[in-house]
């Protein structure tokens, strides 16, 4: 629970906590041959590291293990110091590998780490929820991972990288999204660290600086989302839920207005998606945000938050242990209902979390 400036208190669900192996050696200890001896990118293989350091001070393990790799330390920070009630964990893996089998092995190792060290942790396991990593380049391998973990009571979503070879609306991915529906799990899309195969962050090539990278990279969700709508994915799969876990929700309104303007008059090209494009958003599309995009703490912030139904889509996430370590600061113009939705209610409904009991609802 946290207390807001007006004295009100609300529960908090942190919908984006990033977790890691302690080291590459630690990861290799979980991998099995022939993958244990293979080469793969380090978490730090990133052309666009933050200038002041990628992680917040004090998030390393007690023996200088990788930040976000010690459940006791992370649980203490989140639950004892930051007022979080439940944390949704997202293992940061290695993106798309040239060898799809290696990519699946890396995802499987992170899943094993997530479940054994975090979701079944003796002190904080009841307050952790987990994201199972799957490899969109290997549908068969992904289905095996889903089948292995779909019945675990604290597994609440699947995770795929924002950096992909193809747009996620294309038919080769449909069996994966259908499996997510069958398992009753939303799909979270996150910018990957240590990426193997990764296209430029803009359609026109690479940027030069970190500031440009983070400004542009999150926009890639728009290409995926608009493609999914145009390909009729949400029409075909009415129970599918997608979480865009790297923000940029403020861009949803202008782009959806644009898609509505151009999409409806050309319906003859997409008869399999007969609704207005924006009609496919409610119940299908969610965002995780920390420092909130948009106008800031202004008198029209609540109105802006309501445009395009964003107040039913956005969930708070700290991005722990990354450098920004977002504090939950709700604009004063938000209504009490909007504040509840941001702080906990949207996440509780999406993930089936009872914040009072800390357990999964039926």
Give me the secondary-structure topology.
Blueprint: E1 2-3, E2 9-10, E3 13-19, H1 24-30, H2 71-81, E4 86-91, H3 100-119, E5 128-133, H4 139-149, E6 155-161, H5 174-182, E7 187-190, H6 210-217, H7 220-230, H8 233-236, E8 242-244, H9 252-263, E9 285-289, H10 301-306, E10 314-316, H11 336-351, E11 353-354, E12 359-360
Parallel strand pairs: 3-4, 4-5, 5-6, 6-7, 7-8, 8-9, 9-10
Antiparallel strand pairs: 1-2, 11-12
Helix pairs in contact: 4-5
Distance between the termini: 23 Å
Biggest sheet features: 8 strands, parallel
Based on helices, strands and strand pairing, what is the structural class?
A: alpha/beta
Q: What is the helix tally?
A: 11
Beta-strand content bin: 5-15%
Parts with pLDDT < 50 across at least 5 consecutive residues: 358-362
């Amino acid at each position: 629970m946290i207390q807001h400036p007006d004295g009100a208190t609300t529960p908090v669900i942190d919908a984006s906590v990033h977790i890691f192996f302690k080291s590459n050696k630690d990861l290799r200890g979980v991998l099995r041959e022939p993958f244990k001896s293979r080469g793969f990118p380090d978490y730090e293989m990133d052309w666009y590291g933050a200038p002041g350091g990628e992680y917040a001070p004090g998030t390393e393990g007690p023996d200088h293990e990788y930040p976000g790799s010690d459940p006791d330390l992370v649980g203490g920070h989140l639950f004892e110091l930051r007022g979080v009630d439940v944390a949704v964990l997202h293992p940061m893996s290695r993106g798309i590998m040239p060898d799809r089998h290696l990519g699946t092995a890396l995802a499987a190792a992170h899943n094993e780490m997530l479940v054994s060290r975090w979701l079944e942790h003796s002190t904080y396991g009841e307050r952790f929820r987990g994201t199972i990593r799957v490899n969109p380049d290997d549908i068969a391998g992904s289905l095996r991972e889903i089948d292995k973990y779909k019945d675990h009571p604290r597994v609440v979503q699947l995770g795929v990288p924002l950096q992909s070879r193809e747009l996620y609306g294309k038919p080769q991915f449909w069996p994966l999204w259908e499996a997510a529906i069958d398992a009753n799990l939303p799909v979270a899309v996150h910018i990957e660290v240590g990426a193997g195969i990764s296209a430029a962050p803009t359609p026109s090539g690479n940027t030069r600086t970190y500031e440009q990278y983070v400004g542009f990279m999150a926009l890639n969700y728009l290409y995926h989302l608009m493609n999914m709508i145009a390909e009729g994915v949400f029409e075909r799969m009415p129970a599918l839920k997608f979480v865009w876990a790297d923000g940029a929700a403020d861009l949803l309104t202008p782009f959806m207005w644009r898609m509505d303007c151009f999409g409806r008059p050309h319906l003859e090209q997409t008869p399999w998606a007969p609704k207005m494009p924006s009609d496919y958003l409610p119940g299908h599309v969610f965002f995780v945000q920390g420092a909130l995009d948009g106008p800031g703490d202004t008198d029209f912030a609540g109105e802006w938050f309501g445009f395009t139904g964003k107040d039913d889509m956005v969930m708070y996430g700290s991005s722990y242990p990354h450098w920004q370590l977002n504090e939950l600061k709700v604009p004063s113009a938000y209504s009490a209902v909007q504040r509840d939705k941001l702080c906990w209610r949207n996440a509780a409904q999406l993930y089936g979390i009872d914040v009072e009991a800390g357990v999964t609802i039926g």
